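Lab notebook: predicted structure, single chain.

Context: the supervisor wants predicted structures on file for every construct in the current expression panel, including those that have not yet been purified. This is the next one on the list. No modifications to the sequence; it matches the entry in the shared construct table.
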Amino acid sequence: MSSLLTESDLLHEAEVVWLENLDTLDYVRQALDKTRRRNTKPPYARDGRMVGYALLDEGASPDPDSGLYKRRVFFLLPHDRDSLPGGLYREGAPGEAVDPRTIAPKKPGAKTPRSQSGSVAVATSAP
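Prediction complete. Output recorded below exactly as produced.
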């Protein structure tokens, strides 16, 4: 899924766990992954690295067909701005990217000047 998550997608989030310091990240990618458990660190099968994930509350129910929970996972790929500051996303950001400072349980996160343009552009445009 993309950054176009809604609060209804996140009704059962209890906590967001960060694995890295957010001060150094202009954006994170977010997606809903299906996992077997609602309250442990989920497996990660993408390129790049997981930088955070959501824990679900006791009221969360698994999908009746698959038995899996939908949980939000935050990640970065090897070609993202934090690893390649002069690369593809030196300006702009991937569609599913949001500013990690705007993320909270049950809140989808938002695009900001920092996530879209980078901390250098934000710093130079400040009065």
